[in-house]
Amino acid sequence: MAEIRTIEPAEHGWRGTVEIPGDKSISHRSVMFAGLGNTPVHIRNFLHAADCLSTVGVMRALGVDVKFLNENELIVTGNGLHGLSEPMSVLDAGNSGTTLRLMMGLLAPQPFLSVFSGDASLTRRPMGRVLRPLSEMGARIFGRSGNNNLPLAIVPTEGKLHGIRYESPVASAQVKSAILLAGLYADAPTTVTEPYVSRDHTEQMLAGFGVRMERSGTSVTVFPVEESGYRAPDEITVPGDISSAAYFLVAGSIMKGSRLLLKNVGVNPTRTGILDVLAEMGAHITLQNERTSGGERIADIAVAAASLHGVSFGAEIMPRLIDEIPVLAVAALFAEGDTVITGAGELRVKETDRLRAIATEFQKLAPGSIEEREDGLVIHGNAKIARAQVKSYGDHRMAMSLAVLGAAADGVLIEESDSVHISYPTFFSEIERLS
Q1: How far apart, in whole angstroms, are the C-alpha atoms of residue 79 and residue 69?
Q2: Interstrand relation of 219-222 and 190-193 (parallel, antiparallel or unpaired)
Q3: Cβ proximity of 304 and 284 under 8 Å
Q4: Which of 11, 138, 185, 257 has CB 3.0 to 4.6 Å from 109, enough for a Cys bridge?
C-alpha cells in the first residue's frame, strides 16, 4: 500500500524566506563536466536528490573521484577528457532522463562498452530522439523495442565520431546536450538547430570549461576539443532551481495573505517562462539582488498574493517552462476565466503522461474544471475545489503541484508523495514551516 500524505489548508497563506535547493539541471552537468577535467572542482549548493545522485553513481563507475564534504558540497576530480574508464557493471540511471540522455552523448565516443538500466518509469521513456542524431555521428547504440528503450548498450566505434549539422524536430535540452557532448570528441564541428531555443546550461557551462561554442539564432555549434583545451574551473556554485521555486511562486500568488522571498534562484532566460506567464496572469513578483555567477544569472524573487486571470500560451514558450506546467495548471484553477495551454505534447513522455495525470487528478479536486487536449489543456478558472484523495503516479512534479493545490483549497491526500526525493527532498518540511 503506497503511503498517503495529508496536506491541510494553509488558512493564512505561506509567509517567510525560502532557500531554494540547487538547480537539478546544473547539478547534473557540474558533476559530469568536472569529471572530464583533471583537476579538483569544488561544487557548492549541489542538489542532493535522487536524480543527481544517479549521475554521481554513474561518474564514479566510470573512474571519476567524487568526495562529499557534506550533503550539498562535493569535490570532483577526473582523469582528463579521455580518462573515463570502462565500467565493471551495468550503469544505473535510476529515474533520471537527464543522466541517461546526456551520458549517451558522453559515452558514445568512448573506446569501451557501457550498458545502462534504470527504474520502471525511465525504462518506458523514449530514447530514439537522442539515439538518431548520435547514430548519424557514427555512434553504435542498441536497446529494447527498436533501440528506443532501456536497457541500452553503447558499443565502441571504429575511429572518431563525425561532426554533423542536426535539425532537431523538438526543442529539447537533453537531445541538444547529448549531441554537443558527443561533439567534443568528433572529427569536425557539430551544430544543433532547434525549433526554439531550449535551456542552455550545457552551452554556458562548457564555455566555462574553455570549450569553443558559437550560437546563431536557434543554432549552437561546438568545436572538437584537444585534451589541453579543456580546463576545469576551481569551483562551481549551483544556483537555486527555478523549477523548485515554481511551487512557491504559484502558492504565494494564489493563497490569500502569502508573502514569500525565494533566495538565490537561477533566472537564466531560457528557464524563466514561468515568470513571464505568471506576470501576464497578474501575479505580484519582483526580482531583487540580481547578479551573475559562472555564466548563470541569479536573483532573489519576492512574491505576494494577487488576483490572477486566465491566459493562453503555447509551443513558443514551452521549452522555457515545460517542467512548470503542472503547477501553472494549479494557478489557472484559481484565476478568473479560462487558461488555454497548447504545444505541450512533450509532457506525454515525462515521468508519467503529465497531461493525462493533470486532467485525471485535478478533476478529482475540481470536477469539470479541466479539458485534456492532444497537446495541452483547457482550464476553467475560479473552480470549486473540494478535498479529495489523489495519485501522484510517483511523479515528483505532480506530487508537489497537488500539495500546493490542496494547501490553497480544502486540503488533499496524496498517494506516493515521497517521489519528491527525485528533485526536492525537503519540500514537505519546508511547506510545514511556512504555514
Answers
A1: 20
A2: antiparallel
A3: yes
A4: 185
For residue 340, the SS3 value is strand
pLDDT tens-digit map of 79-110: 999 999 999 999 999 999 999 999 999 999 99
In this structure, the dihedral spanned by the alpha carbons of residues 228, 234, 237 and 243, taken in order and rounded to 10 degrees, is: 20
Q: DSSP assignment of 116-142, as one string?
A: EE--HHHHHS--HHHHHHHHHTT-EEE
Residues labelled catalytic: 323
Helix H or strand E segment including 113: none
Task: For cell 539582488, name the residue.
Answer: 289
Indicate the DSSP class of residue 327.
H
pLDDT digits (tens, 9 = 90+) for 21-76: 999 999 999 999 999 999 999 999 999 999 999 999 999 999 999 999 999 999 99
Q: What is the CA radius of gyration of the chain?
A: 21
Q: How many CB atoms lie within 10 A of CB 3?
A: 9
Cα 29 to Cα 25: distance, rounded to the nearest angstrom: 6
Cβ(47)–Cβ(23) below 8 Å: yes
- d(C-alpha 196, C-alpha 168), whole Å: 10
- Strands 91-92 and 114-117, by their bridges, are parallel
Please report, for residues 233, 234, 295, the alpha-carbon distance to residue 207 in angstroms, rounded to integers and kept in the order given. Answer: 11, 15, 9
Locate all alpha helices (DSSP H) within 282-389, ordered by sequence: 325-333, 354-365
Rounded to whole angstroms, the Cα distance separating 357 from 161 reads 40
List residues bridging with 237 in a β-sheet.
44
Asked if 232 contacts 209 with a C-beta cutoff of 8 angstroms, the reply is yes
Which runs of consecutive H residues, i.e. helices, occur in 63-108?
A: 97-107
